[in-house]
Each structure stands twice: as C-alpha cells, then as structure tokens.
What we know:
- By secondary structure, this protein is α+β, with helices and mostly antiparallel strands.
- It is built from 10 helices and 12 strands.
- The protein folds into 3 domains: 6-161, PAS domain (Beta-Lactamase, 2-Layer Sandwich); 220-306, Orthogonal Bundle (Helix Hairpins); 315-459, 2-Layer Sandwich (Heat Shock Protein 90), CATH 3.30.565.
- The strands form 3 sheets. It has a 5-stranded antiparallel β-sheet with strand order 2-1-5-4-3. Strands 7-9-10-12-11 form a 5-stranded mixed β-sheet. It has a two-stranded antiparallel sheet with strand order 6-8.
- α5 packs antiparallel against α6.
Amino acid sequence: MIKKGMRRQIVLHYILVVFVALLLVEVIFLLAIRTYYYDSVYNKITTQIGISENFYKFTFSNEGSPVHFQKLLEYFDMDNTELEILTLNGDILTGSTPFQPDRTITTSDVSEAVGGSIGRWVGRQAGTNESVMAVSKMLHINGRDSFIVRYLTSMERINSDLLNLTLVSIGIGAAVMAIVMLFSFGLANSIVKPLNNITAVSAQMAKGRFTTRIKGDYKYEIGDLATTLNYMADEIIRSNQIKDDFISSISHELRTPLTSIKGWSETLISGGYDPEETKLGMGIISKESDRLIGLVEEILDFSKLQQNEMKLSIALIDIKVVLQETILNVWAKAEKKRIHLLLECEGTIYIKGDANRLKQVFLNLVDNAVKFSPEDSSIVLSTHRLSKEEMAVIVRDSGIGISEAHLSRVRDRFFQVDALNGGTGLGLAISQQIVELHHGKLELDSELGKGTQVTVILPLTEEQPPVAAEGGNGPELL
C-alpha cells in the first residue's frame, strides 16, 4: 500500500483517469459488437422473410392451406432456426419443429407484426430459459386472409462469443491498467523525488545552512523552483555578508567619534588648559557629535523607508533653490580639497515634492562626488527638461569612478565600494527610495578612472507659485 502523500495522489489520479477512459472505450466497443451481431442475425432473418413472402404470393395465389404451409416450411427453413406459422391471435398453425407446444405466442414481435411492421423480440424462451431472438411478419392472401411468419433462433452461441470477447477485453484492460500503474509510479517518482530532495535541502536552509545547494538537472517548474531556492540561498549569504560588513563598519564609525568625544571630555574635565585649547576641544566634541547624529539619522531614515513609515511633506518647490542650498552645505568640504562646485540650470523649474528629502538626496550625491574626486577637480550640477512631463538633475564628477562589477550593487543597502572611506553604505539606497517616493528614477553611469554621472529624473508639474500682491514684500527664491 502506498503511504499517503503526493506520490499516492498522482498514482491514484492517473490510474483513475485511465480506468474511466478504458472503461468507456470497452463498454462502447462491446455494445457496438453486440449490436452488430444481433443486427446481422435480424437482417438475415428479415431477408429470408422477404423471400418467403414473395414466393408465397406468386406460387400460392388462392388460399392458405396446410399443404402450402408445409411447402413454405420446407423451402424456407433455416439452419438452427425454427420457422412458425401463426394466426393473427398468436396461435401456432404449424412449425418446422415436429412437436409444437399448445400455446399462444404473446411476445412483442407478434403484436408488432399484426400492426404491419416487422416485429423483433429478444428474450428468454419459456420452458428452456434459452436466450432467443424472434422475428415476425404478417402475410396476406388475396387481400383477405392473413397469417404470421415467425422465425425463432437461439442466441446462446452469439452470447457465448460475446462473453468470450468481453473476457478478452477485460484481460486486455487489466494488462493495460497494470502497464499504466507501472508508468504512473515512474511518473510520480519523477515528480516526487525532486520535490523530496528540494524539501530536504530547504529544511537544511531553514536551519541556517545556506551553503547547502539543490543538485540535479531538473526541468520546467521544478527546475525553476530549485534555481529560485539556490538563488535565495546565495542572496541570503550575500545579505548576511553585507550585514556583517555593515556592523563592522558602523561599529568603527561609531567608535571613532565616541573615542574623540570621550578623550577630549576627560581632558577638559582635568582642567588647566587655556581658552584656545578648550575651544579646540569643544569644537571637536561638537563636530564628532554632529557626525554621530548624522549616522543615527541615516539608520533611522532607512528603517522608516523599510517599514513604509516615511512621510513626505509635498509642496511646490523650485529645484534650483534646492540645488543652491545643497552646494552651500558642502562648499566648505569641497574647498578643503580645492574642488569646484558648478551649478548649471535652465531657468526656473518647479516640481512637487518634499524639499528637505530631495535636498538630502542631492547632498548625498554631491558628498559622494566630493569624497571620491581628486583635488583641483570639478563637480557639475545641472538641470534639464526632458519632456513636458519630466526633468532631470545630473551630478557629474571626474573622480575615481565605479567598476562595472560594483555598479550593479552600489545601490544595495549596506554595500560600500570602499569601506575605508567610512559611511554606512545606506546613503545611495536611501536616496533611491526617496526618489521613488517622488515617482522618479535614479540612474547611474560610471567608468572606472574617469568619473561618475548620477541622473535623478523627477516628474514636472504645471502648477505655478502664486504671484505676490503688487507692492508686497514676499520672499524671493534665489
């Protein structure tokens, strides 16, 4: 007995479908054969009756007599068939059998013959319980006297042949079902064995053994499932590695400012320093505190984005103003490396968005450009109208660039091209998600050793800012 499971279900369903189909075919076949045999007997008898009728009409034209009936019996008797002459009431006048029972024939073939058609009846012969077929037809004499010619033949031999044919068909059907069962086991195993293998490997993965892989050249949907699970394991390993690298990196990032803050705090507490040294120490503490706050805020922003909890304060903004503020914020850092920040704008461009969040995006992009650009180079921020519906902000530098291997992963969370430069590896991932919240796109184009170009595509709006009242002193956008 097959234990419960998918193998059992496949085998049972496959056998059931084939069994029903085979049963229908055999039933239809046997019914067709039976009909053919029975109709053959019936057609042969009706042909004989037709010949008998014509012979009688042309040979004996006066009246029916026992002599005439006897000649009819002699001429048109059939092998293994009994010929009877009946009255319209079903009484037997004479027959080919020497001993005729003294009874009235009441089977349906007689009543059909009296009605004017050729009657046919299949059933059991009274007394012998033998399976027989009776065919009857009424004959007229001079349009007045009438009698019934009735042929009665045994169907036992035909039924025996049909029974043998049925047994042969059942045997063939059983052989076919046995072959089908063997094939169904093979079919079930071809499906269940790979699934059992995949299930076993999945159980190992669930226990944290992500180096385990599904082996085997599986096809179609099972092959897709195996490939997907292997890919999932690879991605989990990669994500775990990135997470470990992030934890290591963020630990270093947090330890450095904390060490500076703790060191200068202890130094200042000890006292005995002049105002200039005290001012220097407090400045370092303030700078490192700001750095810590920036790291924590970046992690919090990423957490909000992952949980879809970041809310945007949408308003009509001039993108040029946002870029000007961005340049002002990174100007001091760029000056230390003698990097020139250039802004190229095609006039005023209005979009609907969150000014602070978009400023966060551009600050991250320009800060990265400054970080990875050589001294005495330039970083260009430019805006372009792509169509009536879209505009683009391009940040282009001539820095170290990004290799093709890293370019596809640089927007992944926690990924850092150069871990020695610090950072959490979240900046670009956060920037992309903020841009997507504005229904835009962030595209990267870089070549190692030649620089990087980042394009932020945002939807335009037809809405314009309200015109200030004449003589008013409203603020101006620079």
